[in-house]
Design a protein that fits this description.
methyltransferase activity; globular; methyltransferase; tRNA (Cmo5U34)-methyltransferase; 7 strands; 238 residues; alpha/beta; 7-stranded mixed sheet
Length: 238
């Protein structure tokens, strides 16, 4: 993330980090499938069985990008970047449990804090963009990623899009999903309130494509969708 996302970073304090693994799977129906498809797309684009350096921006929490892709490809090394210490600590624990600690470098900070001459074979940005307020902050992190990718390198981008209030049926279905998992009315209201707090998703798939183009990426392909959530595959322009 960039320096303009300090409010987003503060949202992921120790209390929120502690419930992240469970709540993220309720909020995103298909959480594991999205990460599995992302790993498969990277392997298909980079070629399986080789060595690659993967930048994982906003890696904190479950580190699911690393855990899933690391099990698929034994030759990949991951650089996990996150500005939230509690979230990065959770990610480190997940990586350790998966036996991937020796293949993962953790960096507390932002993408633009990485050395300017580092170049990666691929990158992921999952569950981050909709927490950044305004186009400027979104464009900044995408540009920082593009600057640290090799020409033609793939990027997996995933996160919420659309105005939450603009899709009331999706918002209501979100609440029903928590009810399906045992929450009562007050709990659902609180959950939705926390999601809506400070969130600023891109307004459409076209908005996502515009932001990516402005940062130096090719037009993205949508590979996953679940209510507000979308997952896209793109490449840094050569």
């Amino acid at each position: 993330m960039t320096t303009s996302d300090d409010g987003a970073t503060r949202k992921f304090d120790a209390s929120r980090a502690g419930e992240y693994a469970v709540q993220s799977r309720i909020a995103l129906a298909g959480y594991d499938a999205c990460h599995e498809l992302a790993a498969c797309l990277l392997a298909a684009s980079l070629g399986s069985g080789g060595r690659a350096d993967i930048l994982v921006a906003g890696a904190g929490g479950t580190a699911q990008e690393i855990v899933t892709a690391g099990r698929l490809e034994a030759g990949w090394h991951f650089t996990a970047v996150d500005p939230s210490r509690p979230m990065l600590d959770l990610a480190a624990a997940a990586v350790e449990q998966a036996g991937l600690a020796k293949r993962t470098t953790s960096v507390l900070g932002h993408v633009h804090d990485l050395p300017a001459d580092w170049r990666f074979d691929a990158a992921t940005l999952v569950g981050v963009l909709h927490h950044l307020p305004g186009d400027e902050a979104k464009q900044a992190i995408l540009a920082a990623l593009a600057a640290r990718l090799k020409p033609g390198a793939p990027l997996i981008l995933a996160g919420n899009r659309h105005s939450y209030a603009g899709k009331p049926l999706f918002l209501a279905a979100w609440g029903e999903r928590w009810r399906m998992h045992g929450s009562d009315g007050s709990e659902i209201e609180a959950r939705l309130g926390r999601i809506l707090q400070g969130a600023d998703p891109p307004q459409s798939d076209e908005d996502v494509a515009r932001l990516l183009a402005g940062a130096g990426f090719e037009r993205p392909d949508l590979f996953f969708s679940s209510l507000f959530w979308g997952g896209w595959f793109t490449r840094r322009r050569i």
